Amino acid sequence: MVTFRTLHHKNMQTVHFSIYTLTSTFYIWIFLTTFVISGDVKPRREIYTPDYKFYHNLSTIKHHIEDLLTKNQGYIRHYEEYQSRNGASQYVLRISNFSDSRMASHMYTIADHKPRILLSFGEHAREFLPIESMFHLLTNLTSGLATARGSSTEGFSRKVLSHIDLFIIVIANPDGRNHIERTNNYCWRGTSVGVDLDRNFDWEFGGKGSSGDPNDEEYRGPHPFSEPESFVFRDLTRRFHFDMFVSLHSGVRQIYLPFADSISKEEKRVPNNMDAQLHLASKIARASVDDFNFGIGYKLNNYPADGTIFDYMSGIKKIPFSYAMEIWGNGDHKGAQCFDLFNPPNDQLQETVSNLMPLYETIFNYAIKWKEEQIHQYFHMSQEPEFAVSMGYILLICVFILFLLVTFQHKLPMVLRPFNRRRVISLRSLSSTFSVAGGIKIT
Questions:
Q1: According to the model, what pLDDT value does residue 122 have?
Q2: DSSP letter at 112?
Q3: Between the CA of residue 439 and those of 233, 428, 430, 435, what are the distances in Å?
Q4: pLDDT (tens digit, 9 = 90+) per residue, 209-230?
Q5: Residue 383 vs residues 108, 148, 375, 387, 396: alpha-carbon distances, Å
Q6: CB-based contacts of 9, cutoff 8 Å, min separation 6
């Protein structure tokens, strides 16, 4: 009995310990789920928030775009068909000198003298800065049209507008921004239904570098392209052939080359033109006043990202240059909240966007030069040598056939011989012929 009671007592202790362990585990799981796993999309006590005297909100974004369209009708077009789930405009702009006759056709040929670039902003709702840098870029581009010819501002505007066909998605995720403005939750990243637009694309969709949990900030959605906001990317790349795509973000200073997904990391997959993309990335990094890191996405980050837009543009759409660029920030660090993690203080905004201008200038200059080299290679290293070789073969064949005819003509029937014997005519018969025709005047 003593032994039994002792054993029974130990069993009771084990049961109590197990219940305590399960209960503790449950509460720890609740804590992690609430504050760690999905805490990134829950509001925090912010260090500072946006002052809309400095930052744009949805209302001022709309008014600013409308003002640019009104004042620059010959240079900016608005594709109004692209909208969010809730019907908000994504403000897709095309910027170029449309007086150029070669802009009339949407069909792409190698002879198209303008590189076509697509810039995407506002994919993640909490990242205000990329949109502000975009407006600073547009202000510089359009202000040069009204300045004196020969000035640096005018030269920049003329060069870009005359040599580049530029597409801009002003705010890819307007519903997410609306959620922030309504709730003051500056940690919100996704669409109106919480989908991370940059995990919703059909490149290794569903991998471990995304989440199937609707409460997670990297929630990928139920299937690729489930979000209406993703349509603009597929449709534009169906209608137009782009030479370059750049997805602009904030939170750290890094330039990502394809690929960032977990499968590519395992297979060590890289883009076909990795050297050229690294070359441009290095130029962009050097152009900045701040230090930028650059490299293959899965090497640069300590976590994979599956279903991203820039991977899709490279892997599926085969755009020669495709990047995701984080243009500001020091990364997640102790004491950081949300708005300060992705956006500079209000009084530093203007200086920050000014410092980002060399990045855009470097991209544009490189694209112009690269396109010129592509055209040169196509016409002077592809067509002409091919034509010369073809003509050489034709001439060689003709000479060979002529040689055969001359050598073996005596074996051919008389009527098929190309070189028949000449007929001999005597002078006597020739003189009699002239005598007969002597009475006819020639003139």
A1: 98
A2: -
A3: 91, 19, 16, 8
A4: 999 999 999 999 999 999 999 9
A5: 18, 42, 11, 6, 20
A6: none
